[in-house]
Every structure is written in C-alpha cells, then in structure tokens.
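Re: the 213-residue chain
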Amino acid sequence: MSCSNKNTEAFQSPATLVGRAAPTFTAAAVLGSGEIQESASLSDLLQGRYGVLVFYPLDFTFVCPTELVALDQKLDEFKLRNAEVLAISVDSHFSHSAWRALPIAQGGIGSVGYTMVSDLSQEICAAYGVKAVDASVALRATFIIDQSGIVQAQIVNNLPLGRNIDEFIRVLDALQFYEEHGEVCPANWSKGDTGLKTTQAAVGEYLTEVIEN
C-alpha cells in the first residue's frame, strides 16, 4: 500500500487500517528543528521507531492549535517510548512553517518539536481513509504504528471534537506491554497495571476481583 503526492491515481482505503501495513507516502515536511524537507518518506521519518500519526484539519484554526500544543507538551513522553510523532494536514509546508513561527499568544503553535507533514494533494488522508465527507480536510484521526510498520490503533474524531493526548500514550503503553509480556490489556488498563492471560479461568479471576473491589 503506497501513496505519493506525485501520484494522482485515486486510492481506496479500507474502513479500518488496524492490522494492516501503514500506507507509505513521500511528502514535503517541516522537521522539529524547523528545517524544511521537500521530500520525506514515512520510513525515513520513522526510522524503525513506533509511529504516532496525528491528522488534523487545518493550520491557523481553533481546536487544532490546542491539540498540537498539547501534543508538544507530551513529546518527551513519546520519545521515552521510542515513538516518532508526525502531525499531518492538507496545508503546505510553508503554512506549517509560518504557523510554527507565530507565538502561541497570537494563535500560533510555537516551535513544536515534532515533524509536520504537508498533504497538499490530500492523497495521504485519502489513503488512510480519514478525509472529511463534506470538506477537503482530514478528520481528527490518530494512527499508532508498531516498529514493523503495522497499524495497531486507529482513533478518529469528527472535526469539532478535540482529542486526549494522554490516551495516545496509554494505547502505546498497552501495545508495548503486550509485545513484551504477551498478556492482553483489559478495560481501563494503564501503565503499571497487571495484564490478563488469555484463558477463561484468568478472565473469571480478573472480573471477580474487579467486582469485589
């Protein structure tokens, strides 16, 4: 599955990408350092790390800056988990750069430390199946990709609904716990909690303990 800003062929994404290889792409981007790259691929940007792809509608808007600033405030948490954050919208890389240069007090996002990808052709959001129905923008969608390039989580909100950045971290923790221990993560699991063995007896013991507590 691939997508390139130079490719005008329509791409039909499945309803969910979970369990599938993340669609690849090559696009212009603004790195966390502020450097502009005219052509950056998904594999080059992730370099074997976990990926947290955060689609948002537009630069210079209202809910979007609250999410992107909150994302930057948690960036160290993602780095501790060996995860690379990529923010993606249909704006140009020049627009991304200008928005980063605008102070937060004036509605900008400041010099955020993660990469911002330009999806000017709207092919990336189409490949990920998150293009808004009635607008030429992406929905508020988040994809968590493992180190093998497989999508492990897909969270999609409509345009008015801002996201909880801590939930991205919790899901990433759950994924890494499962990879390390082979145990699944029950409802409301958070880092430090025990996992669940995949047997009926273990489920019964866990539910009994939850009910009693």
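The mean pLDDT is 93.
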